[in-house]
Design goal:
This protein is α+β, with helices and mostly antiparallel strands and 184 residues long. It has one domain. It contains five helices and seven strands, in the order E-E-H-E-E-E-H-E-E-H-H-H. The strands form two sheets. A five-stranded mixed β-sheet has the order 2-3-4-5-6, covered by helices on one side. Strand 5, helix 2 and strand 6 form a beta-alpha-beta unit.
């Protein structure tokens, strides 16, 4: 049977077998995703897995996410290439309710017991799961090799005392020069 890409209509899924899928977006789709995610590029992206029937009418999505992400170093702005290989799991249950949505408006919202579980809807979209999993897997503060030495910690001497340079030291001299120029 050929692989599918989804989205899968839950009413049409056969409960006696798994439903495989493989997503491998082309260069144009990867460029659009990179722009949405705020990264420089996605060199590779693949999301492959299957939907597995669960007792009680639910479904479990199990897949492997593989991606090569390029993004700027947060210190030097040099390109940083990160390889992402992550297993992804989502459970879709017909009678599941988010405890945070049932709370009174003034009550504190609680995180669900299982963040990988959600209510079963009319469709399951592996592309949406792929995009969410990729967004969560991208490093928020990528650093190029050696970038730590150029970061803010480098301003402190090894003994932890105050920095040896004074970034505002020149402001006093500028103030004095401006006063002098006003007097002329």
């Amino acid at each position: 049977m050929p692989d599918a890409t989804g989205p899968f209509l839950t009413a049409r899924l056969m409960r006696d077998r798994t439903h495989p899928f493989v997503l491998a977006p082309d260069a144009q789709a990867r460029a659009a995703m990179a722009a949405d995610l705020g990264v420089t590029g996605l060199r590779k992206l693949r999301f492959a897995g299957a939907l597995h029937p669960l007792e009680g009418g639910g479904w479990e999505l199990r897949a492997d996410l593989g991606a090569t992400v390029v993004q700027p170093c947060r210190v030097t702005l040099e390109p940083v290439v990160t390889r992402i290989d992550e297993p992804v799991r989502r459970r879709y249950l017909p009678d599941w309710r988010d405890p945070g949505l049932e709370a009174a408006p003034e009550a504190e919202l609680e995180a669900p017991d299982d963040p990988d579980t959600e209510a079963l809807g009319p469709r399951i979209d592996p592309a949406a799961v792929m995009a969410e999993a990729l967004a969560l897997a991208i490093p928020p503060f990528p650093r190029a090799p050696g970038a730590d030495a150029a970061g803010p910690a480098a301003a402190l001497p090894p003994d932890g005392d105050a920095p040896t340079h004074r970034p505002f030291a020149g402001l006093g001299a500028l103030r004095d020069r401006l006063k002098r120029d006003e007097g002329d």
